[in-house]
Structure formats: structure tokens, C-alpha cells
């Protein structure tokens, strides 16, 4: 029985963690260290994917609530506050705040698109203002 989650390999059957154009071109000990580091990165990437999936499940619930009460898909005040909060968190984590803002803006655009679709489906194409 295969488990599913950030550390499972059920969807990674075709992923070769040793794949590299550097194989055979660098010393074995360097390659081993590189692969160990990349393994940690691979685990973090998997965790990010599952965290994003959980985030989108939560935002889908928000989208249904907004559609039920004919609320607009976007909430600019919340978005501004979230971006400011994420920039502060990024600074505290020594991550480029501009990168963090771009990342959150991408997620926000996708969430708004989902909320618009939920509203259109629920309300027969008469969603609330998209601003």
C-alpha cells in the first residue's frame, strides 16, 4: 500500500533524483554531496506543493462562501495587508521581499480566478464585481 503525502514517492515513480548533466564530470565525493543537498531541496519542493494544495482547499471554501453571499472575488484591502505581512515575514526569513511579493501576487491572481469561476457557476454568470 503506498502512502500519499510530501514524502511519498507514489507520484515520483518516473523521477530520478540522481539525474544530472554533471554525472561523470565531477568527482564522486562532490557528486554525492550535491545529490544529498538536492535531496533536501526535493523534499522541500514536495512539501511546498502539498502546502499549496492545502492553501487552495482553504481558499476554495472562501470562494464558496463569497459566492453564497454574493461577495466580490477580490478583496484589495486584504491583499494589501497580506502582501505587507508576507514582505515582513520574508525579511525576517532572509528571503528577498520582492520575490515573496511576486510569489504571493501570483497566488492571489489564481485565487481570484478560482473565486470568479465559483461565483459564475453558483450564480449563473452573475458574479459580484471582480474588484
UniProtKB/TrEMBL annotation:
Matching InterPro entries, A to Z? Answer: Chorismate_II_sf, Chorismate_mutase-related, CM_bact, CM_dom_sf, CM_II_prokaryot
Gene Ontology biological process terms from the UniProt entry: chorismate metabolic process; salicylic acid biosynthetic process
Q: Where is the composition biased (Polar residues)?
A: 1-10
UniProt keyword Isomerase present: yes
Q: Which PROSITE patterns match?
A: CHORISMATE_MUT_2
What top-level branch of life does the organism fall under? Answer: Bacteria
Q: Which UniProt keywords apply?
A: Isomerase
Q: Per the database record, which ranges form the Chorismate mutase domain? A: 28-119
Give the region (Disordered) as residue ranges.
Answer: 1-21
Instruction: Give the E.C. number(s).
Output: 5.4.99.5
Q: Name one molecular function that GO assigns to this entry.
A: chorismate mutase activity
Under PANTHER family, the record lists:
CHORISMATE MUTASE
What name does the UniProt record give this protein?
Answer: Chorismate mutase
Q: Which organism is it from?
A: Arthrobacter zhangbolii
